[in-house]
């Protein structure tokens, strides 16, 4: 298998604001969308006694232990001829425990307790479903609802392990309140240690959470949690949807991680992959009942040609049950606080974004190319999550710029809270790579940072796991002989512009020096680049510490002034000659000087509220690797002199990055 990065394959959008002609208003489409959603929701409610019940199906499917220790097994396998349960408990007898066929392709099996009243299947023992197909095959499968799967060292295939611990983890801390401003730290638990091996949930809890807290993040987004047999897929080729990856520890250890994060006031989002599924059959969902369809579309519609994976049939009743219950499972059992939905652009269009660009024209977002089943699925998911959990946060990874993505479902939107502003990291990469310092275009930077749909919240980030800005930048910056202080500026400009949240990935915290690569055949299964050297900050590598300090202080300053939650920035200066950008947000004035050599004194900047201003954060600070040339005790007083459309202005001083 190849490494498949899930988003880089799509062309990037231009999220153009206010460019759309009125006659193409999306309201017509929104009401159609809403009609379809309403119909599906009503059907669910009528047939299943409400969506609460329907989405708790993890309490009836897979394995359930009743209070009297009877075990009930239930599966949906519409194409199967017969189903048996085999495992350690019956000496791997392939025929002794048949399931009974029920309506609509469902199967059930009841196993009474042993004579000593303990359950017939012990905690931590292995199981398999034996599926007999009409073609006469006998297939050994993992239940789609398996809560825990492990792999024996030498084995390629995962095993289904019955997880029913005698002392399940009990959450001690309530979910923290939804933060006013989201500062997201994106994390991959497996790489989050300096050692050349897969790091554990417990290590993360004890060694990494305190750092994230210290840096001032209030949210972590965990990737690669849903079990994925292929480590190098970054977690995007999911094989067991209800199982937390056993590479990093047990389900109970992940629960503890989330509980401890909550105790620190940090909310936790799951990077949920419902856009596609691994093609694996023996330890994946593919061909569970022996057929090509089951959870997926049959034929070409069921395959993603670039990702080499299977695509869900979102119109299937049991598919909805499975996926919606999966969201409930992570919310209820693990107490996640919300989701980043991966691969939303691929779901929205029949062409999956392959070979199509998005210019912002409405015709690209509505019409026959749009997959209505996926739209309805996403609307249902957002409606249910936001109805049941008031503070639940949902983020869409959409590069297409689909309008109405972040509008409420009742208004015909898809109901996400935020979209990821995918164009921002790309812009930084382009600017850094392609332009000489003196050619940096201020208008272009401002346009990228502010280019978004009105009223829809977006998440800005300087880098994410699949846009490896920092690593590229390290190479460029070291070539140019610039100091790390440069990053500070880059972080802040991304942080403070028009986004509502900010995101940082484990791998570039404090300017991590190395590339990321997971162990795979091509690199001799090496863990060398699948680890993060947190220890660098603690040793005397001054520069890492400096970046760490800036990141932390940026949070502290944000915490005080709250610009992420404030209305968008007012840009008063973007001067191409001076290479200066000035904007105001939450009564804070941000001044950026991108000029390679010019420093400025007595530079007039506009101010909204009149009065006294002081320097609060300065990338020239010695603690960030700068020269400490500015006196922070200086007070700047405004004059009632109108400037760049603001009523007041003052003379300021700032330096170049030289
Ligand atoms: C069940 O089937 C598997 C695969 O054919 C076989 O290896 C195993 O020995 C069988 N179990 C018993 C108890 O016969
Ligand atoms: C998707 O599921 C629906 C409902 O079960 C079914 O009618 C349809 O044939 C399936 N589509 C494909 C392409 O498998
Ligand atoms: C992998 O290991 C083999 C044998 O030790 C060696 O010949 C080869 O060069 C290594 N390849 C890489 C990519 O390190
Ligand atoms: C990779 C990993 O799990 N590393 C460490 C986890 O924490 C324990 C105790 O602090 C260490 O001994 C491991 O080396
Ligand atoms: C989430 C978090 O830890 N935020 C911190 C940011 O910095 C301020 C000021 O030091 C802290 O009070 C916050 O707790």
UniProtKB/TrEMBL annotation:
<dbReference type="InterPro" id="IPR017853">
    <property type="entry name" value="GH"/>
</dbReference>
<dbReference type="InterPro" id="IPR006047">
    <property type="entry name" value="GH13_cat_dom"/>
</dbReference>
<dbReference type="Pfam" id="PF02922">
    <property type="entry name" value="CBM_48"/>
</dbReference>
<keyword id="KW-0732">Signal</keyword>
<dbReference type="InterPro" id="IPR014756">
    <property type="entry name" value="Ig_E-set"/>
</dbReference>
<comment type="similarity">
    <text>Belongs to the glycosyl hydrolase 13 family. GlgB subfamily.</text>
</comment>
<feature type="active site" description="Proton donor">
    <location>
        <position position="397"/>
    </location>
</feature>
<dbReference type="InterPro" id="IPR004193">
    <property type="entry name" value="Glyco_hydro_13_N"/>
</dbReference>
<dbReference type="GO" id="GO:0005737">
    <property type="term" value="C:cytoplasm"/>
</dbReference>
<dbReference type="GO" id="GO:0007399">
    <property type="term" value="P:nervous system development"/>
</dbReference>
<feature type="active site" description="Nucleophile">
    <location>
        <position position="342"/>
    </location>
</feature>
<keyword id="KW-0808">Transferase</keyword>
<dbReference type="InterPro" id="IPR013783">
    <property type="entry name" value="Ig-like_fold"/>
</dbReference>
<protein>
    <recommendedName>
        <fullName>1,4-alpha-glucan branching enzyme</fullName>
        <ecNumber>2.4.1.18</ecNumber>
    </recommendedName>
</protein>
<dbReference type="GO" id="GO:0004553">
    <property type="term" value="F:hydrolase activity, hydrolyzing O-glycosyl compounds"/>
</dbReference>
<dbReference type="GO" id="GO:0043169">
    <property type="term" value="F:cation binding"/>
</dbReference>
<dbReference type="InterPro" id="IPR013780">
    <property type="entry name" value="Glyco_hydro_b"/>
</dbReference>
<dbReference type="GO" id="GO:0003844">
    <property type="term" value="F:1,4-alpha-glucan branching enzyme activity"/>
</dbReference>
<feature type="signal peptide">
    <location>
        <begin position="1"/>
        <end position="18"/>
    </location>
</feature>
<dbReference type="InterPro" id="IPR037439">
    <property type="entry name" value="Branching_enzy"/>
</dbReference>
<dbReference type="InterPro" id="IPR006048">
    <property type="entry name" value="A-amylase/branching_C"/>
</dbReference>
<feature type="domain" description="Glycosyl hydrolase family 13 catalytic">
    <location>
        <begin position="195"/>
        <end position="543"/>
    </location>
</feature>
<dbReference type="GO" id="GO:0005978">
    <property type="term" value="P:glycogen biosynthetic process"/>
</dbReference>
<keyword id="KW-0328">Glycosyltransferase</keyword>
<dbReference type="Pfam" id="PF02806">
    <property type="entry name" value="Alpha-amylase_C"/>
</dbReference>
<dbReference type="Pfam" id="PF00128">
    <property type="entry name" value="Alpha-amylase"/>
</dbReference>
